[in-house]
Amino acid sequence: MPVDLILPISISFSLLAWSLIMYWYIHPVAKEYPLERALIPFLLLHSFRYVGLMFLVPGVTTEVLDSRFSQPAAYGDLIAAILAFIAIAAIQLRARWSIASVWLFNIWGLADLLNAVARGIMFTPDGHLGATYWIPAIIVPLLLVTHGYIFILLIRDFRKSYNSPFRFTQTAKFKGTSEED
Q1: How many domains, the chain?
Q2: Which of 123, 147, 149, 174 could in theory staple to 66 by disulfide, Cβ–Cβ 3.0 to 4.6 A?
Q3: What is the pLDDT of residues 104-139, one digit of tens each?
Q4: Contacts of 137 (CB under 8 A, 6+ apart)
């Protein structure tokens, strides 16, 4: 089999497997939780994105990787991990901006992954990833699937709150009104 087909085949199988795991096992459980509680495990998973810094370590990869790929991939992942931790903290502290921080993380994180994949295709010769091969082969597909699922959760929550006739307040009482009115 040509070497240049192995990584795309690995990514395709991983995307399929992670999607099935999400659909069959994770979604049925996650949908039962309030949005904030459902988001935390996915954010915790993404807090490990600092692992992308391995692209910068000589000897971990077969060859020193082109900095047009390695630098943006490594530091983009580090920023995604930091944003995931900020979103976790915001949710745990019940900050008013917690969901906005998840949106920011998810937009950045997905854009970073897509950028890294594109740069990897353009600037990383087949076989040069060395021990980091498992990152795009197994971990990137998982991260892509979870980014997609986070977007689904966020959009569903937005639609639910936007369509609710009580989206501003359900229990607001105005001066001069009473329960008897």
Answers
A1: 1
A2: 123
A3: 999 999 999 999 999 998 998 877 888 889 999 999
A4: 7, 10, 11, 14
